[in-house]
Amino acid sequence: MKVLLLKDVYKLGRAGDVKKVADGYGRNFLLPQGMAVLATPNALQQAEKIKAEAVKQRAALNQEMSAVAEVLGGLSLGFPAKAGETGKLYGSITTEDVATAIKARTQVEVKRQQIDMQPIRSLGEHKIHVRLTMDLVPELTVVVFREGEADPTLKAAPVAQTETAAEPA
Fold this sequence. Notes:
By secondary structure, the chain is α+β, with helices and mostly antiparallel strands.
């Protein structure tokens, strides 16, 4: 099935592109979601117009999201976890866990579908990507450490500030 993309679709193409996709993917996902239309001769005549509009929308969205990308870029998140002697976790760190930690740390709402990673099942430092737009993909560091150890992502100063803030209360 040939479709004309109306919106940017991750790992498929940008708006205005004509792509050949599986019948089920086009019929059951792209067409109902309004992401594409069938590539008919009439639709193909409007491809350039769609591309031009998409470039404008993409530029506006990138400008909006650039501030969020700066906040997320280089962010380091720490997760305490139970692990065996070999460093293998008894559970895993999922995209939902990372999205919740980002929200708690930066007050930025990120959907779990935007986080590009496999579940983390070992101790150590892992690099993950957050797809804000097709062009803005900041890289985060996720550090998984044993429960009971100090969080390596926190600096000494913030820990001291939280302790002194807790004493007067």
